[in-house]
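Next comes a single protein record:
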Amino acid sequence: MSQLPWTAAALRDRPEWNHRLNSEERQELLDLLAAQGPLDQLPGDAGAATATGLAAFPLPVLSERLATIQQQLETGAGAVRVRGFPIEGLGEAEARFLYWAMAVHLGTPVSQSARGEHIFSVRDAGLAESDPRARGPNTRKRLTFHTDRADVVGFLCLHPAREGGENEIASSMAIHDAIADARPDLLEVLKQPFYYLRHTIDTGNQLPWCRQPVFSFQDGYFACCLLRVLIERAHSHADLPDLTDEQIAALDLVETLADETRHKVVFRQERGDLIWLNNWLVLHKRQAFTDWPELEKRRHILRLWLSTPNSRPLDPLFADNFGDVGAGAIRGGIHAAR
C-alpha cells in the first residue's frame, strides 16, 4: 500500500482504520494469557522483567494481522485502529500482558521515563503544573498537536472519561503539502532546526538541549517531529536564542492547518479500543476531559512507545534525541537515570 498524505474523509475508509479482531484472534490472546499463569508484576512497569522476544508470545493466527499492521504503519497511512480487544473481565495486569504481547510483534518497546517505564499510564495524576513530574498526559487539560519520542506510539483504552478526552490526528505529510502550497517561505523555516530544551522528566539525558527540524527528508523518506512545549521552553531559556517571528508563524500555521476539519480525524477511544500511530507521519492531540468521581472508572489509557524494525532513516540531527538514525535501528525513548 502506498504511503500518501490523507484527508480526514479518506482515512475513515482505509483498511488501517477498520481492523476488528475476530473470535479466533481474541481466543488466541486469552489462551496465551491462560498459559502465562499468575502475573506477579505489571508488564512494562519500571523494573519489571518482561520478555520482548516473539518466542515468549506465540500468536500464530493474530501475528498475520499484526504483520499487516506493521507495514501499514510504515508504508500506509501511519494510523491504525483496532477494535475487539478482549478486555472484558480482565484486570489491569492481564490487559497489559496482552497489549505487550501484541506490541512486541510490531516492534521493540522503549522506555518512557527515567525510571524505565515501558507502559505509561495516561491518566490525571492530580499534580500541580509547577511539579517537575507533571507532563501533559497525566493531566486533564487539552493537549496540542505533537509527536512522541519513538517510531510508533500505541494507546489502549482501559476506561474512557466521563466527558471529553477525544483524540485528534492529522497527516503530517498533508500538512507539509498544504504549507508548501500556501506559504513555501514558512515551509523552509520548518525544515531548519529548532532548539528543544531537555524535558523535565528526562533526567537521564546528559544534553541540556538539542536541535531538530519539524519537517525533514532523508534518503527520500519524509519525517515530521514536533513537541512545541519543549521548543517554547527553549525560547524562554536565557542561554538559548529566542524564536524568530517567522518561526512562531510557521509553528502556528502547522497547528492551524492540522486543526482544520479537512485534515483532522476526531474520535473517542472506548474501552478496549487500540490505536497505533507512526510519529513520523501523524500528529496527534487530546481534548480536555471531565472524569468520573469513582477512582476505578476514571479515564485510563495505556501508552507504549515502539522502535520498529521497518522504520525509516532519519536526518542526522535527530541523533541527539533518538540515538541511532539508521533505518530499522533501535531508537527513541527516554534514557534511564544513572
In short: The chain has one domain: 8-322. The domain at 8-322 is CATH 3.60.130.10 (Double-stranded beta-helix). The CA atoms of residues 170 and 259 lie 8 Å apart. The chain has a mean pLDDT of 93.
